[in-house]
Design a protein that fits this description.
Strand content: 5-15%
Number of helices: 3
Distance between the termini: 84 Å
Structural class: alpha+beta
Strand order of the largest sheet: 1-4
Largest sheet: 2 strands, antiparallel
Number of strands: 4
Radius of gyration: 28 Å
Order of helices and strands: HEHEEHE
Helix content: 25-40%
Oligomer: single chain
Length: 97
């Protein structure tokens, strides 16, 4: 049994590629940046208290605990990777318990 390979030698002309310049965007802070201040995990531990569920006054997980748990989980799941500290922004002091 013999195989035959047939090549298509017909040249097709492609439309020209249009190169577009990047659109210049205004230097405007996003909503999140405009309405918040930068913070650190240490500042949150010191100045912010554990929030509570308003109906029963029961404590809920604090933002600091959540961030630390997620950092630990990411480090365990991806051991060879360098997990950077989170960039935190706050809009107000977290009040509660």
């Amino acid at each position: 049994m013999e195989s035959t390979l047939i090549l298509n030698t017909e040249v097709q002309e492609l439309p020209p590629i249009e190169i577009q310049e990047p659109v210049q965007q205004k230097e405007q802070a996003s909503f999140i940046v405009a309405n918040t201040i930068p913070s650190s995990l240490e500042e949150m531990k010191k100045d912010h208290i554990i929030p509570v569920y308003h109906k029963t006054n029961e404590p809920v997980i604090s933002k600091v605990d959540f961030i630390e748990i997620m950092e630990e989980a990411a480090s365990k799941e991806y051991p060879p990777e360098l997990i950077l500290r989170p960039s935190l922004r706050l809009s107000h002091v977290i009040k509660g318990f």
